[in-house]
Amino acid sequence: MKNQPLNSDQKIIFQKFCNVFLPPTNNKRKYKSNELDYVSSSLNRVFYQNFGFNLSRDHVRDNFIEMGYQIFTKGGVWDPDEKKFKPSASSTMVKVVAPQADPETLYTYFNISPTMISSLRRTTVKLQQNTNESKRKEIEDLKDKIREFAESI
């Protein structure tokens, strides 16, 4: 079943959230933390806990593209007409996924801060007891900023 598109209020919340917490960067580095699957699962956790709605992989990808974020792949070329990535001849990456997954859209990256995505994801789980105090404070401060943001909307 295809995901329902975000309603206009949800879309506005997503866009404002990204403008505040995930502004575009000027690099095209490929990390686990700025790859579409990781970004979408992290944002889904944050949005479900703080705003009460879910985000799918398609929601995240489509809204980032609409907002003008750069999108790139591991050895792939973006086809704007089909809105898919076509693997280049030199790509040797292999990703183990469900058989129904579209192989042309695997390993999609965005020009956002991977550190911020990881921090946002950490706000959704209980921190381990041996977490460094400065890291714990950083995550708690980020939780407070997200709460303030959610209350301001």
Comma- or semicolon-separated keywords:
mainly alpha, two-stranded antiparallel ribbon, coiled coil
Short summary:
The protein has 153 residues and is mostly helical.
Question: How does this model look, in words?
Answer:
The protein is mainly α. It has one domain (8-152). 45% of the residues lie in helices and 9% in strands. The chain is built from five helices and four strands. The protein has helices spanning 8-21, 36-51, 57-66, 114-122, 133-152; strands spanning 71-73, 76-79, 84-87, 108-110. The strands form two sheets. The chain has a two-stranded antiparallel ribbon. A two-stranded antiparallel ribbon has the order 2-3. A hairpin with a 4-residue loop joins strand 2 and strand 3. The longest helix is centred in the C-terminal third of the chain and has 20 residues, at 133-152. The radius of gyration is 16 Å and the shape is globular. The chain starts with 7 loop residues before the first helix and ends with a helix. Keywords: Coiled coil. Residues 125-152 form a coiled coil.
Detail the topology: elements first, then pairings.
Blueprint: H1 8-21, H2 36-51, H3 57-66, E1 71-73, E2 76-79, E3 84-87, E4 108-110, H4 114-122, H5 133-152
Antiparallel strand pairs: 1-4, 2-3
Helix pairs in contact: 2-3, 2-4
Largest sheet entry = 2 strands, antiparallel
Tally of contiguous helical segments: 5
Number of structurally distinct domains: 1
Residue stretches low in confidence (pLDDT < 50, at least 5 long) are 91-100
Distance between the termini: 30 Å
Total strand segments: 4
Order of helices and strands: HHHEEEEHH
Globally, the shape reads globular
Q: Report Rg.
A: 16 Å
What's the arrangement of strands in the largest beta sheet? 1-4
Helix/strand class: mainly alpha
